[in-house]
Specification:
It contains 3 helices and no strands. By secondary structure, the chain is mainly alpha-helical. The protein has a domain of about 35 residues: Cytochrome C Oxidase, Chain M. It is found in: Mitochondrion inner membrane. One of its GO terms (cellular component) is mitochondrial inner membrane. Belongs to the cytochrome c oxidase VIII family. It is a single-pass membrane protein. Its main location: mitochondrion.
Length: about 70
């Protein structure tokens, strides 16, 4: 039983040394207010960037299935 207890002590000390302390994060107001137009533009660009290629592949799926 003492061997089992020693192994738990060893494991506990190994885990204790790997703990990471919390970062001190403080919330502040934004330095630059982002307008609704800027938000809409960025969301549109992200939409096209992510879903554009997927839509192209799905629209041309039959062409990809064909063997030349």
């Amino acid at each position: 039983m003492s061997g089992l207890n020693r192994s738990f002590t060893f494991l506990r000390s190994a885990v204790r040394s790997q703990l990471v302390q919390k970062a001190n994060i403080t919330a502040k107001p934004a330095k630059h207010v982002v307008s609704v137009g800027e938000q809409a533009f960025v969301m549109g660009v992200m939409f096209v960037t992510i879903l554009g290629p997927s839509g192209w592949i799905l629209a041309n799926l039959e062409n990809y299935k064909k063997r030349d």
